[in-house]
Amino acid sequence: MNYFAHLVLSQPTIESTVGNLLGDFTKGVDQGELPEAVRAGLHNHRAVDRFTDENDAVQSLKQLFSPQRRRFAGIALDVYFDHLLMQHWTQFDSQPLQQVIDNFYQRMLQGHGLMPSKQMRNTTQRMVDYDWFGSYREVDSIGRALDRLASRLRFENNFNNAIEDILANQTAIETTFLLFFPKLGEHIQTLRIES
Q1: How many Å from the N-terminal Cα to the C-terminal Cα in the chain?
Q2: pTM for this one?
Q3: Inter-axis angle of helices 14-22 and 97-110, nearest 10
Q4: Using CA atoms, how far apart are residues 150 and 147, in angstroms rounded to an integer?
Q5: Which of 4, 20, 56, 64 has a beta carbon 3.0–4.6 Å from 169's, enabling a disulfide?
């Protein structure tokens, strides 16, 4: 799962928001120094990733990607799942999507003091300033985001234009996501990591 889905599966607090985003920024972080509620959010983030990575249906989707992009398939699916979550938002939540996005942004900004690294603070500031979540509603923006991710990888790759593999398998990916995401939500509720 990517940033938006992680926040959807978090608690409506600043500490949970920071912790559930922190999973992508833990390099060099002394987790023992984190406030307990932030640490619980981090554990929640990891539980989401673990359940997703171990799911057979999600693993099968990776095989739909062309051989040169298959190594990048998990990342591409994570980002595209954010898009699908927004496209089908009313199936998962009754709150207006824009209100949810605005609340996430507000908590992210309020949580800057709890963020343990400059990289995390800078990235979350860019997320708000450039409305990353709003842009994820459009499939073209997903394609551009994936190309930017591929260009930042430290090894030579052929991952650009990964959106082509996604669009070629759009129905299968969407069908799998709509079955998978409710199971993920139930799993996280059962664990009660942040309760």
Answers
A1: 21
A2: 0.95
A3: 90
A4: 5
A5: 64
